[in-house]
Design brief:
The structure holds 2 protein chains of 2 kinds. Chain A is an all-alpha fold. Chain A has one domain: Cytochrome c oxidase-like, subunit I domain (Cytochrome C Oxidase, Chain A). Helices cover 62% and strands 0% of the residues of chain A. Chain A has 17 helices and no strands. In chain A, α5 runs antiparallel to α6, α6 runs antiparallel to α7 and α11 packs antiparallel against α12. Chain B is of the alpha+beta class. Among the domains of chain B are: 58-94 and 102-138, no CATH class; 277-310, no CATH class. Helices cover 35% and strands 25% of the residues of chain B. Chain B has helices at 4-11, 17-31, 41-45, 58-89, 105-138, 257-270; strands spanning 149-156, 159-164, 177-180, 182-186, 191-197, 202-206, 211-215, 221-225, 231-237, 250-255, 284-289, 294-300, 303-308. Chain B is elongated. The termini of chain B are far apart. The chains are: A mainly alpha, B alpha+beta. At the A-B interface, α4, α8, α9, α10 and α11 of A face α3, α4, α5, β7 and β9 of B.
């Protein structure tokens, strides 16, 4: 394994040592483009993979929404091709497979690869002034493990007896061989395991890279908040994904080897406990929410500062808020299990701890608003998406309090209120963050600018439809509608909700359509966008001090860092240098 | 009260379970033939309301929901207003950015104040109220209440089975009343359910009673509520339990004391009786092994009798 050759980071690095020789960029298509150890290439590979699966999972969601809005009506256009056996109708069995695969793909194979795999890989070494990740070969292995996981998951679509259909949570005993016979659910378990292995490899790499490879002068409190987000998310990944993997392994044993970890035993028969899986799943599952949102929070915290042209307000308060959230996120998972009949004392503890997360969350929010306040806002596309995240996350975050409260949760649990809440927070907000990141770093990644006008149109349509779709889902849940019903009219009390369901579906279809603007913009810009300068956004972090796209070794010379990441709008800089930003590798003029 | 299906059970308390099931099936069949789409979506779109509250303690949930809606809406509105003002008025390039790192004492006090406001204004109030409601209501199970109506609930793919102990008050005896997808309880007494599942995890959900509890294979969970009015209410499965999860629907009939007593009496008379003869009119229906003897159940003269094997 070759580690990047460069002095160790941190303030104590020895600058007098002669620069070590740069590793030359490998020749040959395979080593450069496919099995590359370059973090920038691997980042782009993760991005492509994530975007492809984002499109797949989004399509699955729209098929679902068609069935809920128009139960029993054949899906127009694609129905006859996809579901020939039923004449294009989404059957209840198909519906369960659709929501299972939608959730699984979105969380594990779309959002995680795009943000952590894609932007984490691309941005972290560039932003801390490193030539590559600490373990480039492990990074390569991480991507191809993820690729293997996607191959297995894709295969599960075509398994005999149908695709996996036990929900993205796959609770036993429904997910055991008795509840879900067939190969598909086994493949699902294998795919989740490989996916987890990939995430842990990435986590080890990010944690080490940030600790060891920071450029001289890049102290922890001079790191961009983006790096903080990825670093903390990596810690959660490293700690909690193995717990999910343990659950997956035991479930695999139950399905394949006939063990009984998750099926109930009796006095005469060996057996375990179905609830054990729920504990394992949610010990991972709640931190997973933060694994997804932390990178988006970090990115947006930076972007708000960059485009408000002033430093991040209360940088240290924001960092400590993030750390507090990360710590708390490990001890609140029980609120997913309030209705399993858990001990009242345990329930009350989990309620209190979950509620307390709102405190660091709002102090972080104060930081965002403080950054914008009295700024000189430039409403570029990445800025608009960042502002959208603040709004949408506010909406989703506050609805989380309802689900932290046992009494309200007992009523709202497993209703569309939960669906609306987690889509606003860990899907819509994360996706808005991912779009902000894409529009922002596209020039650095591909060397060309994206189209601003198309981007703004994409933003406007996405924001409105996100709020309508998921906001209306909150109302559906408030009215009591359960999740995962292919035809809510089976219940009399849900029948008046059909118009609202149709509204959700219509908004979702428009949202899906609006993403075509992004696809068009992405491909158009990739080939015909104007060439990007090194620093088109006029900001000071290290990634913008190198050409777009950066050379193979990132930095000709490892930079020395003098200031924090948000030295914007400083009057003395303006006076001396005639611009409103200072690079992190520049000294503050005396 | 909500649908024709429901009113059948509510009005006619003399029907047996099987008779009701037959009528329900027929009514369901006609009900879902109709197009459920209302003509104009905007008429029914607003207001979205909570389901009708039919329980003695549902108002506690509604109260906490109301508090959370108001408090979080205020907090969100403040956030949204600051955001909008900044986006509309604090714009470049006309306006210069005010250079600050927001690291002063005053800035930190602002952040702390907002955090404490949420902690004590929303979190603490909700936690204290909820704890009180749980301890004095939802978690105060009627263990020692002789008035409580005890029912065993079993979930399975995709139906609910309910077992009353019958007149002797003891479960597992021959006068137990067992019903399928239909839970009958009298008004004015707490209902104490004990739940489990035969196969996968289900969740017993009473929207009109703001209550829900999982039914888990290998475990016993419990839930109690007290109705405040007669009527028939829907019971739903809230936990994904397979392809036909959405059809795992049952009904809760809250009856007058007299009506419930009449039904229980009739049903109790039916309970120990033998199953009806099969259509061919006779024959052996199965082998039974007892501890000390082997025999079979045979139909003779219209009654099922135990015949020991020689």
């Amino acid at each position: 394994m070759t580690t990047a050759k460069q002095p160790a980071g941190g303030a104590g690095a020895d600058l007098s040592a002669p620069p070590t020789a740069l590793a030359a960029e490998p020749n040959g298509f395979l080593r450069r483009r496919v099995f590359s150890t370059d973090h920038k290439v691997i980042g782009r590979q993760f991005l492509w993979l994530g975007l492809v699966f984002l499109a797949v999972a989004g399509t699955l969601a729209m098929l679902m929404r068609w069935q809920v809005a128009h139960p029993g009506v054949p899906v127009p256009v694609v129905g006859a091709i996809l579901f020939p056996a039923t004449g294009g109708i989404v059957s209840p069995a198909t519906y369960t497979a659709l929501f299972t695969m939608h959730g699984t793909i979105m969380i594990f194979f779309a959002l995680t690869p795009i943000l952590i795999g894609g932007f984490g890989n691309f941005c972290v070494p560039l932003m801390i002034g490193a030539r590559d990740m600490a373990f480039p070969s492990l990074n390569l292995l991480s991507f191809w493990t993820m690729f293997a996981a996607t191959a297995v998951l894709t295969a599960s679509f075509f398994a005999p007896l149908g695709p996996p259909a036990a929900g993205w949570t796959s609770y036993p005993t429904l997910s055991t061989a008795v509840g879900s016979p067939g190969l598909a659910q086994t493949l699902w378990v294998v795919a989740i395991y490989f996916n987890g292995a990939s995430s842990v490899m990435g986590a080890v790499n990010y944690i080490t890279t940030v600790i060891r490879l920071r450029a001289p002068g890049m102290t922890y409190f001079r790191m961009p908040l983006t790096v903080w987000g990825f670093w903390l998310a990596a810690m959660l990944n490293g700690l909690f994904v193995p717990v999910l993997a343990a659950g997956a392994v035991l479930l695999f044993f139950d399905r394949v080897l006939g063990t009984r970890f998750f099926t109930a035993g009796s006095t005469i028969r060996a057996g375990g406990d179905p609830i054990l899986y729920q504990h394992l799943f949610w010990i991972f599952g709640h931190p997973e929410v933060y694994i997804l949102i932390l990178p988006a929070w970090g990115i947006v915290s930076d972007l708000l500062s960059f485009f408000a042209r002033k430093p991040a307000y209360g940088y240290k308060v924001t960092v400590w808020s993030l750390i507090a959230i990360v710590i708390l996120s490990g001890v609140v998972y029980g609120h997913h299990m309030f209705v399993t009949g858990m001990s009242p004392m345990l329930g009350e503890s989990f309620m209190l701890l979950t509620m307390i997360i709102s405190v660091p969350a709002v102090t972080m929010g104060v930081g965002w608003l403080g950054t914008l306040w009295r700024g000189s806002l430039r409403l570029t596309t990445p800025m608009l998406f960042s502002l959208g995240l603040v709004f949408v996350f506010g909406l989703g975050g506050f609805t989380g309090l309802f689900l932290a409260d046992i009494l309200a949760d007992v009523y709202l649990h497993d209703t569309f209120f939960v669906v609306g809440h987690f889509h606003l927070t860990m899907s819509a907000a994360v996706l808005l963050g991912a779009f902000a990141a894409t529009y922002f770093w596209f020039p650095k990644m591909f060397g060309r600018m994206m189209h601003e006008g198309l981007g703004k149109l994409h933003f406007a349509l996405t924001l409105v439809t996100v709020i309508v779709t998921f906001g209306a889902q909150l109302l559906l849940g408030y009215a009591g509608m359960q999740r995962r019903l292919p035809d809510p009219s089976a219940y009399a009390f849900l029948r008046p909700l059909l118009p609202l369901n149709r509204l959700v579906s219509s908004a979702a279809f428009v949202m899906g359509g609006a993403q075509l603007l992004f696809v068009a913009n992405f491909f158009f810009s990739l080939f015909w966008g104007p060439r990007a300068p090194a620093n088109p956004w006029e900001v000071g972090t290290l990634d913008w001090t190198v050409p777009s796209p950066p050379p193979h070794h990132n930095f000709d010379e490892i930079p020395q860092v003098f200031v924090g990441p948000h030295e914007l709008g400083n009057p003395s800089v303006k006076e001396k240098l005639g611009r409103d930003y200072l690079l992190q590798s520049e000294k503050l003029p005396a | 009260m909500n649908s024709p299906v429901l009113t059948i059970c509510a009005r006619d308390t003399t029907l047996t379970g099987r008779e009701i099931q037959g009528r329900v099936d027929r009514t369901v069949a006609t009900l879902y033939d109709k197009d459920p789409a209302p003509p104009n979506m905007f008429i029914t779109l607003w207001p979205i309301t909570l389901p009708h509250d039919a329980s003695q303690s549902g108002h506690r949930v509604d109260g906490i929901l109301k508090y959370l809606i108001i408090s979080t809406s205020v907090a969100f509105a403040v956030m949204a207003i600051v955001l909008l003002v900044a986006v509309i008025f604090h714009r470049g390039p006309i306006r210069e950015a005010h250079y600050t790192h927001g690291a002063g004492l005053r800035d930190r006090l602002v952040a702390a104040a907002v955090g404490l406001l949420v902690l004590f204004g929303i979190d603490a109030v909700a936690v204290v109220r909820t704890q009180d409601d749980l301890r004095s209501g939802f978690w105060k199970y009627p263990d020692n209440d002789p008035q409580a109506v005890r029912v065993e609930v079993t979930g399975q793919q995709w139906a609910w089975t309910f077992r009353h102990p019958g007149a002797d008050g003891v479960f597992g005896t021959r006068d137990d009343l067992v019903t399928l997808n239909e839970l009958r309880v009298p008004l004015g007494r707490p209902v104490y359910l004990q739940l489990t599942s035969k196969d996968v995890v289900h969740s017993f959900y009473l929207p009109n009673f703001r209550n829900k509890i999982d039914a888990i294979p290998g475990a016993v969970t419990r839930l109690w509520f007290e109705p405040r009015e007669t009527g028939v209410f829907e019971i739903a499965c809230a936990q994904h339990c397979g392809a036909w999860h959405y059809k795992m629907r049952a009904e809760l009939a809250v009856m007058s004391t007299a009506g419930f007593a009449r039904w229980a009496q009739r049903a109790a008379a039916d309970a120990p009786a033998a199953p009806p003869p099969p259509s061919d009119g006779g024959g052996v229906i199965g082998q039974v092994d007892k501890v000390d003897q082997v025999g079979k159940v045979e139909l003779s003269d219209g009654a099922w009798t135990w015949v020991a094997r020689p």
